[in-house]
Amino acid sequence: MKTLLAKEVRRFMRVPGQTVLSPLISTSLYFLVFGYSLSGRVHEVEGVPYLSFIVPGLVFLGLANNAFLNSSSSLFITKIQGTVVDLLVAPLGPLELLAGFIGGAMVRGLMVGGLTWAVATFFTGFRLAHAPATLFFLLLSSYTFSVLGVLAAVWAEKFEQVNFFPTFVMLPLTFLGGIFYSVRELPSPWNHISLFNPMVYMVEGLRYGMLGTGGGFSPLLGGGILLALAVLATGVAWAALQSGYKLKA
Predict the structure, then answer these.
(1) Residues β-bridged to residue 49
(2) pTM (2 decimals)?
């Protein structure tokens, strides 16, 4: 398991410009463009300067995307190259395989999220209201999206199917999840419809931890939803690896 984890980390560290620097620049551009263009019109949201308000959402965006992309691309490449058979016949159980792929994806997601936070600190200053809550949402978000990446790789048979989730599911839900605005301030019925978006609770939970404000959302509810999603995804991924679903020829 340690060997698989080390391989996963080395894999994305061989191309840091593509796997770490590129998403860091993209997320930082969101901060600069949206933050500075809107901060002149919107000075504060929920009592927090607008530039500071969007930082937790952008950290979450970089973390979730990169955790998902790392595990999904790594497992899917081994699948289409046929080398996944080597892993299945190795003395590794489903949980050990999951730990290797998920661990590498979490390292990449947390690295991009942490670097995004560090860049934002230069513009907004460092704010950390509740360290345990922040750590909880960072770790569990990176874990959950790493597992979802494994599930996407197991299910997909073509590269375009791997890209289906980040393009058509994650991106819309993330951008409608209150990264750049407070969902409480949306007009009806959109403010009520947004409550069905699980990304809202993840972003607001991280916002509570970093800034001390959560838009009226309970961090316990957000943590519960995230934990339930993590347990459900882990169970499905374990069952898929255990049975060799779409992995064994």
Answers:
(1) 44
(2) 0.88
